[in-house]
Predict the 3D structure of the following.
Amino acid sequence: MPLTPFQRGVARILAKHRNPESHISGGAVINRGEGGVRISDDLDIFHDLAASVAASAEADTQALLAEGYSVEWTLRGEGIFKAVVTRGEDHLRLERRNAARAAVTKAACRAFSRIQGEATRRLTTLR
């Protein structure tokens, strides 16, 4: 993954207590390898089981604090936890969410985009 040394440090700490039913997704994975097109500013971790999101977020907090990082949870909700992890000048966004819930949200966004695209197409043909 094209991660900064800070991001690699955070990822290594999280990997030590990784829940086997979780997986990393998003820009950090899409741009993996040293030839990636950009460095992601976040780590997105998805869980198959909604109940494991909160437990993993708590484990993240304890592990990161023990290693000298600061963790500020900006959102704690059912099936989704978002935080900013910092140490010194470095920071990254950390997001844990339930994969099924995220899929429903993405499906709704795709449906809205199709509807919006169709409405835009119809409006442009009226000119």
Remarks:
- Strands lie at 22-25, 42-47, 70-77, 80-87, 90-98.
- Residues 103-127 have pLDDT under 50 and may be disordered.
- DSSP finds four helices and five strands in the chain.
- The two ends are 47 Å apart (CA to CA).
